[in-house]
Amino acid sequence: MDPSTKLVFDSPLLRVHHDGRVERFYGTETTLPGFDAVTRVSSKDVVVNGATGVFARLYIPDHLLTAEHKKVPILVYFHGGGFVVDSAVSPAYHRYLNSVASKAGVLAVSVNYRLAPEHPLPAAYDDSWAALSGAADPWLSGHGDTSRVFLAGDSGGANIVHNIAIMAGARGGLPSGVSLAGAILLHPMFSGKEPIDGESRETREMTEKLWLLISPGSTEGLDDPRLNPMADERRACRTWYAGSCLFARPREITTRGQGPRRTTRR
Question: Which Pfam family, just one, is annotated for this protein (predicted)?
Fold first, then answer.
């Protein structure tokens, strides 16, 4: 059999061949930055790390560029896709961030972190941490309040938000003097060895295989504390930042104040 046709991972999201070739079936379309006439938001791409190619797309409501305003909050967003598909420059996320920046009146930073399996964890965490220095970009620092930075993300991006917050607590804050005011986790990618909420065996098996693809060096499997926040509650209690958190999953939205969070995994 031709080694290039042998599969080591197969799912509706992507297929990984034995020779390392990756086929993605979702989230491969991209769109350019610029001025959006509907939302009147301007965007541009800035390089985070020239060596890795990681960049972020910055969004700013047009009126902030042409008039004197008080500085507004900054939203740093991490796209979803289970760490393996999609990007910050997909049409869906581009439209979404244009809309959020316009309606919320914030400056937005959408991070295009590297994907697994080509770049397994902790690459996405490291890229996302480094991208927070983008909040100090002159385009943002001139109009954005770096003392009011909010992290947000969905799916794998929400997992990044959680782990960045943990890292911030452990390291005494965020890079570049950025202050973390709060976090928004939208149906975060969490799991664990103990099944809950009628989770099917098929779903758990696929999640376990996906996590092994994302983080082949993990020894805890689904109870890796990066995936299961409750696997090491002392870690979460000790390092979680002091801010506010919005946690959302399908059909439910809950808000949390300070202190450790016991969240339901997806």
Answer: Abhydrolase_3
Count the domains in the chain.
Answer: 1
Report how far residue 72's alpha carbon sits from residue 142's, in angstroms, rounded to the nearest whole number.
Answer: 10
Q: List the domain range (segments joined by +) for residue 63.
A: 27-256
Alpha helices in the chain (DSSP H): 63-66, 91-104, 123-131, 138-141, 156-171, 201-214, 233-239
DSSP reduced 3-state for 79: coil
Q: How far is CA 230 from CA 54, 65, 252, in A?
A: 30, 44, 20
Alpha carbons 240 and 242: distance in angstroms, whole number: 7
d(CA 107, CA 141): 10
The amino acid at 52: T
Domain at 194, CATH number = 3.40.50.1820
Q: Is residue 2 part of a domain?
A: no
* Alpha carbon distance 160, 25 (integer Å): 23
CA distance 245 to 248: 10
Tell me, rounded to whole angstroms, the distance of Cα 264 from its chain centroid.
18
Q: Is residue 5 part of a domain?
A: no
Q: What share of the chain is helix, strand, coil (3-state, %, to 5)?
A: 30, 30, 40
pTM, to two decimals: 0.89
pLDDT in tens, 173-185: 888 778 888 899 9
Q: Within a domain: residue 8?
A: no
What is the rounded radius of gyration, in angstroms, for the C-alpha atoms of the chain? 19
Q: What is the number of alpha carbons within 13 Å of residue 146 lying toward its C-beta?
A: 17
Per-residue pLDDT reduced to its tens digit, 136-189: 677 777 889 988 999 999 999 999 999 998 888 888 888 877 888 889 999 999
Residue 91 is assigned to a structural domain of this protein: yes
